[in-house]
Amino acid sequence: MGLKEDRQEGIALTVNRLERIDLTRSIESKKKYHKKLKKYQLRLLALQRVIFEEKIGVIFVFEGWDAAGKGGAIKRAAANLDPRGVRVSPIAAPAPHEKRYHYMQRFWRKIPQYGQIAIFDRSWYGRVLVERVEGFAEKDEWVRAYEEINDFEKLLTDDRYIVEKFWLHISKDEQYKRFKEREENPMKRWKITDEDWRNRAKWGEYAEAAEEMFGKTDKPNAPWHIIPANSKWFARVAVVKQMVQSIEKYLHKHEISLPPYPDLLKGKNIESKNTNPKKTSKANR
Q: 3-class secondary structure for the chain?
């Protein structure tokens, strides 16, 4: 495990997390992929009902390389949820009127109500990623942003919110392959721009920014999950599975019983292993 010393704050930061990710992980067959995906989609749907009843807000943040499959993973995660309780917010560059405010203002307006799920396709981490690398933020602004982001997320998780963050990781070779596929496919050509190629040329700078971001914002209350995404099937299942586990962990911590999950083999509901009676939790205060 590589370490470097952050001399500004006097703490050791773990580096090279991306290099340690096994990008060969995959699901061997389409049948197995669909079976696993359906299993966790149904579990997430069952958990959505619980968070609605318990008035727990859930925030899932997605970052990662261009063409890493963020949109596809988000689409599968939200596909079978009750649309009244989930909102996907794609984040682009701030509009001119949004630049009149603190950069976090536009994200505060998208925080979900208690009992709902918000999915951010890119997020406030743009301040320490693209804004840092491309020079859209001054150094003192993006350096200060780490603490601002941690305070923002802690403010939410100290209340009735779950905050989980995903980085979809692919190799540089895989990204090149996907870029070329998009250029050659008339139905996907809109997905590739000159800006994507310019960002690719700064791969090393973005990797360095991402490593520092993990080191300074991967917190127990709002953890990062780096998902191997060279295999789209594997990444989609891994994302939905982690969403399920994150909510289950919160419910267990607050002594809220898990719901019964469908048994795909028998077509029946099976009770959760958590058989303790439900108790009054912080989520119900």
A: CEEEEECCCCEEEEECCHHHCCCCCCCCCHHHHHHHHHHHHHHHHHHHHHHHHHCCEEEEEEEECCCCCHHHHHHHHHCCCCHHHEEEEECCCCCHHHHHCCCCHHHHCCCCCCCCEEEEECCHHHHHCHHHHCCCCCHHHHHHHHHHHHHHHHHHHCCCEEEEEEEEECCHHHHHHHHHHHHHCCCCHHHCCHHHHHHHCCHHHHHHHHHHHHHHHCECCECEEEEECCCHHHHHHHHHHHHHHHHHHHHHHCCCCCCCEEECCCCEEECCCCCCCCCCCHHHC
Size (the chain), residues:
285
Q: Which pTM was predicted?
A: 0.88
Q: How confident is the model at residue 272 (pLDDT cuts 50, 70, 90)?
A: low
Q: For 213-222, what is the mean pLDDT?
A: 98
In a domain, 47, yes or no: yes
Do the domain assignments include residue 15? no
Residue 31 lies in a domain: yes
Total domains in the fold of the chain:
1
> Quick check: 3 pLDDT over 80?
no
pLDDT at 195: 87
Distance separating alpha carbons of residues 268 and 129, to the nearest angstrom? 46
Give the range of the structural domain holding residue 86, as residue numbers without chain letter: 25-284
Arithmetic mean of pLDDT, 247-275: 78
Q: Considering the domain boundaries, does residue 191 fall inside one?
A: yes
Over the stretch 65-89, which tens digit does the pLDDT of each residue have? Answer: 999 999 999 999 999 999 999 999 9
CATH number at residue 176: 3.40.50.300
